[in-house]
Amino acid sequence: QTLDKGLEKSKTSFFGKLSKAVAGKSKVDDEVLDDLEEVLVSSDVGVDTTLKIIERIEARVAKDKYLGTDELNGILREEIASLLSETNTGEQEDFMLPTDKKPYVLMVVGVNGVGKTTTIGKLAYQFKKQGKKVVLGAADTFRAAAIDQLQVWADRVDVPIVKQQMGSDPASVAFDTLKSAVNQDADVVIIDTAGRLHNKINLMNELTKVKRVMQKVVPDAPDEVLLVLDGSTGQNAFEQAKQFTKATEVSSLAVTKLDGTAKGGVVIGISDQFKIPVKYIGVGEAIEDLQVFNKYEFVDSFFK
Ligand code: GDP
């Protein structure tokens, strides 16, 4: 899917609400700003980020004395782009690994159902397409389905997978995966981990242990901890980001399922709030439906 198609529902919903908010009004006044605030919050931009955007628009109104509602779209686009340009989010051009280090160890975290396995499969596909040697590790050993699902993706992409039985020690799977990757001289290892948020201490302990054991094979592993969030859950995605960033050091984000939702504004809020780069967005179930997130393209596509 293209980005435009992926964002269609979010755009339709946002501009539908926006046009209601400005209907019959020619100038941006307090009432329009109040309504705009509601539109942004209900589009899952998040309260804090919404307030920042509103303040910026208020400042423009104050400065220019008059702002026509017909200019609102362009102004919003400018202000959101400028807000995002202050975060280090979405600056990648392509599915490039940030270093040539071998193996590059990517650990993937996130609660069940967010699209973690799918994202791993799509990433494996992209890296393999570049000629990279990829190894997957099924360290989400809590659910048999998780291991099976990852196997399905390993077969689909045709990359090796290291796994053990359900219930085995995730750290042990991670250890085996890294060993195998080193032996095969692999370029990149992608480790799936269990994401049970119901017990934060357990989650924290498990992720810490997985990291510690990986470091016995590759001293500074992991190179990246990618948190996968389901964009269609809106505010839940914010909550999960909060919990995971408390439990472990998260270095990048993937926001999935933007195609099926009107909550695409969540990407703007999450980029602004967490100061962790959104690197990837999921815009469909197919293997090609993962995109490198680019904040400028995102805003352009949203506001055009
Ligand atoms: P996990 O439990 O987090 O590993 O989740 P899965 O990867 O198994 O995905 C759960 C469901 O979400 C599956 O049906 C996927 O096809 C679907 N899914 C994942 N990413 C996307 C996406 O970007 N868009 C859509 N529409 N569906 C997705």
From TrEMBL:
One of its GO terms (molecular function) is GTP binding. Keywords: Cell membrane, Cytoplasm, GTP-binding, Hydrolase, Membrane, Nucleotide-binding, Receptor. GO terms for cellular component: cytoplasm; plasma membrane. Its EC number is 3.6.5.4. It is a peripheral membrane protein. It catalyses: GTP + H2O = GDP + phosphate + H(+). Residues 277-290 form the SRP54-type proteins GTP-binding domain. Signal peptide: none annotated. Its main location: membrane. One of its GO terms (biological process) is SRP-dependent cotranslational protein targeting to membrane. GTP binds at residues 110-117, 192-196, 256-259. CDD domains: FtsY (cd17874). NCBIfam families: ftsY. Involved in targeting and insertion of nascent membrane proteins into the cytoplasmic membrane. Acts as a receptor for the complex formed by the signal recognition particle (SRP) and the ribosome-nascent chain (RNC). Part of the signal recognition particle protein translocation system, which is composed of SRP and FtsY. This is Signal recognition particle receptor FtsY. It comes from Galbibacter marinus. The gene is ftsY.
